[in-house]
Amino acid sequence: VKIIKKIEVIKEEISLLKNQKEVIGLVPTMGYFHEGHLSLIDIARKHTDIVVVSIFVNPTQFAPEEDFDRYPRDIVRDEKLAKEHGTDIIFYPEISEMYPQPFYTYVTTEKLSKVLCGRTRKTHFRGVTTVVAKLFNIVQPDIAFFGQKDAQQSVIIKRMVKDLNFPIDVIVGPTIREKDGLARSSRNIYLSPEERSQASIIYKALTKAKKEVEKGNRNAEEISKLAYQIINSAPLAQIEYVEIIDDTNLKPVKIIKAGTFLAIAVFFGKTRLIDNIYLMKKK
Ligand code: AMP
Hints:
Helix content: 25-40%
Strand order of the largest sheet: 1-4-3-2-5-6
Structural class: alpha/beta
Strand content: 15-25%
Number of strands: 9
Shape: globular
Number of helices: 10
Bound molecules: adenosine monophosphate
Order of helices and strands: EHEHEHEHHHEHEHHHEEE
Distance between the termini: 38 Å
C-alpha cells in the first residue's frame, strides 16, 4: 500500500491509472479502523480495480466543543489493516493540505443537513459534504463507498452527487456490529465499562421495533414510542432523538412503508452514539 500525503502527487497517480482504464474506488474515513471501515474496503475491493482509502480527521465537521482533538488516531495500525484488506493507496493529507488558508468555499446540502443529527450538530454536514466534494475532485473515483451506520450522511452524499452531477456511483455498505449488537464506531472507546454494557440497549430497541413492524404494526408513533421506552430503561442513556423517517427526504413518516427507517441518537455519559435500522426495505 502506498501512502500519499500530497494532492498533486495523488492526482498524478490517479491520472496514470485512469489512462490505463482502471476503475477507481474511494473509501473516505477518519481512520482508527474497525470492522465497519474494513468491510467497506472489502466491498470496494470487490467492485473496483484500485482501492483508495482516505484517512483525514476533518476539522470542519467538528464543532468547537466537540471531540476533534481527542478523536482517536493510529496511522501505523491503520496502514497495516488497510494493507491486509488489499488497499492500493492511502490518501493521508495534512490539514494545511486540505484547507490552505484562506478557505472560503463550502458545499451545503440544504434541508437534509438540518434534520436529525443536523439539529444539534449545525455545521457538521456542511463539513462532511465539503470534504467529500474535495476528495471526489482530488481522487475522481468511479465508485465511492459509505456505511449505513451513518444513514443521514449517506443520504446527503447521494443527494450531493445527484445535485452537483458528480460522475460517481455511491455504494452504501451494511452496518457492522459488535457481538451484542452495538454498532462499531471509533467513538466506542470513549465508553466506560458500565456505559459500554448499557449501550447494547440501542440495538435491542432497533430490533424490537423492526419485529413489531414485521408483525404488522405500521404506526410510526407507536413504534418510536416503543423504541424510546426501551432505550430509556437504561439508566445511563440520555436520548437526543428517536425518529422514524423516509430514506429519500429524511422527513418523519406517520405510516411505515418501504424505505422507512428508525434513527436514534443517544448519549451515554459524554459519548454520543447513533444507529439506525430499516423498518421496511425498498424492494
Ligand atoms: P468514519 O471514519 O467514522 O468517518 O467512517 C468512515 C466510513 O465508515 C463512513 O462511511 C461510515 O459510515 C462507515 N462506518 C462507520 N462505522 C461503520 C459500521 N459500524 N458499519 C459500517 N460502516 C461504518
